[in-house]
């Protein structure tokens, strides 16, 4: 008989809202079994051999999803999971053999799950050409189909394209548009790197589904914000990264512009997802720690104008929906038991997500950082 865990008398943020009553949440390796009012007879409640966890004073929420990370090794997956980021959406990993190896490792239990595009499509010059291999270079529309087919053959879950400022080494607009078209014909969504205002416009014009990063400096113009809403695009602003870049250039004013852009997108109705660009890449504009940075990102989203509940949705249900992950991002019977148990109520104080009591990936408890200070 499969061992079940039951968290009793706990507040539940179910991925959409905080449920009004204390609940008992029962789960095992096969998924969430029941979510019932505290003390009631839920499915399998009170079975011999169950593990019972007192949830008094705590909140359980879906495992967090970081919508922009960079994989490195198994330690990446351990660190993500240890901070409650039970799924990471990778934005560039190569070669294909490394990606396949990490997929096998992630399936062993207790580590974060992930999705990846493999290689991103880049231009022949520009910043990314310094550390992304030549196989990633796409120089014309006629190469778009081959590039997308190669990534799908390697197991890509979606396609990543890199839009630099026009004339700065990016694939040109016809090439970006061809890449998006090829991906869509193959049933894959497209995420576009767009870190400047000009690149943001290029990515919109090319038809990318999601735009990752948010320009520093002058806020996005109203027409761009309106297009994001009207064309149902999704924003992954990676504020943790942009804050680090601004700090490196002693430009707090530039980062303030990024916060205003995110606030404007959210207020207008654009779906904003929580992603950090966590990486340890030599030569990256700034390095961002895996796992812990997602909690900082949630705080920055609140600084930009999202409510704590909006920010939690941005790291759970909204990201699961955007990336077609229907088995996670919510607490409901039948879904994966990816769960984060924290002290306090993060729907009122977002920093409560840092006060981690326990993390479960597919029902398996995760080894946490060794001290409470490290978990914060």
TrEMBL record:
Domain Amidohydrolase-related, first and last residues per copy: 59-365
Superkingdom as given in the UniProt entry: Bacteria
Matches recorded under InterPro entries: Amidohydro-rel (IPR006680), Metal-dep_hydrolase_composite (IPR011059), Metal_Hydrolase (IPR032466), Metallo-dep_Hydrolase (IPR051781)
Source organism of this protein record: Rhodococcus pseudokoreensis
Matches recorded under PANTHER family: ALPHA-D-RIBOSE 1-METHYLPHOSPHONATE 5-TRIPHOSPHATE DIPHOSPHATASE
Name this protein carries in UniProt: Amidohydrolase family protein
One Pfam family here: Amidohydro_1
TM regions (residue ranges): none
């Amino acid at each position: 008989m499969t061992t079940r865990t039951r968290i009793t008398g706990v507040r539940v943020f179910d991925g959409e809202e905080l449920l009004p009553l204390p609940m008992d949440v029962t789960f095992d390796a096969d998924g969430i079994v029941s979510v019932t009012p505290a003390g009631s007879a839920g499915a399998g409640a009170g079975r011999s051999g169950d593990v019972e966890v007192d949830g008094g004073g705590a909140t359980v929420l879906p495992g967090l999803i970081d919508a922009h990370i960079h994989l490195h090794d198994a330690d990446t997956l351990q660190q993500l999971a240890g901070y409650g980021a039970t799924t990471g959406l990778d934005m560039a990993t190569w070669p294909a053999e490394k990606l396949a190896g990490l997929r096998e490792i992630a399936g062993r239990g207790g580590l974060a799950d992930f999705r990846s595009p493999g290689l991103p499509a880049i231009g022949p010059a520009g910043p990314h050409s310094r550390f992304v291999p030549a196989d990633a270079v796409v120089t014309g529309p006629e190469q778009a189909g081959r590039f997308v087919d190669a990534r799908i053959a390697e197991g890509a879950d979606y396609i990543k394209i890199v839009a630099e400022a026009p004339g700065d080494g990016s694939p040109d607009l016809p090439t970006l548009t061809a890449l998006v078209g090829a991906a869509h014909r193959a049933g894959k969504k497209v995420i576009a790197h767009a870190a400047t205002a000009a690149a943001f416009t290029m990515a919109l014009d090319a038809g990318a589904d999601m735009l990752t990063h948010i320009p520093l400096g002058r806020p996005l113009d109203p027409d761009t914000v309106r297009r994001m809403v009207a064309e149902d695009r999704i924003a992954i602003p990676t504020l943790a990264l942009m804050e680090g870049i601004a700090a490196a250039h002693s430009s707090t004013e530039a980062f303030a512009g990024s916060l205003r852009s995110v606030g404007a997108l959210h207020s207008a109705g654009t779906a904003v997802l929580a992603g950090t660009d966590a990486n340890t890449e030599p030569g990256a504009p700034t390095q961002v720690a895996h796992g812990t940075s997602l909690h900082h990102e949630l705080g920055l989203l609140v600084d930009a104008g999202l409510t704590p509940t909006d920010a939690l949705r941005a790291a759970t249900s909204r990201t699961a929906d955007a990336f077609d992950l229907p088995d996670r991002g919510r607490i409901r019977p039948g879904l994966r038991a990816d769960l984060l148990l924290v002290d306090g109520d993060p729907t009122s104080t977002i920093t409560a997500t840092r006060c981690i009591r326990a993390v479960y990936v597919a029902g398996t408890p995760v080894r946490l950082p060794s001290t409470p200070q490290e978990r914060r």
